[in-house]
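Because showing beats explaining, we think one record worth quoting, sequence and backbone structure tokens together, and here it is:
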Amino acid sequence: TLLSIRQDLLAVSCSSPNCPPNLKVGLLPPAGSELKLQWVNVEGASVLPDIEWKILTVQPSLAEEAPSHGKRSR
């Protein structure tokens, strides 16, 4: 979560299912080298080692994407 931007300095809160929120700071690089952004941990966060997780992509069915929203058939 982006918390603040001051000049070229970013303050963010990062978390994941196995790591509580922690504060990080990044300095925006010159235009054209955005992939080289370096993050610095401002406060430590301990990872919970016994938790495994992954991101799943779920595609809703056509009926779930455009429900009738209370339309009645006659």
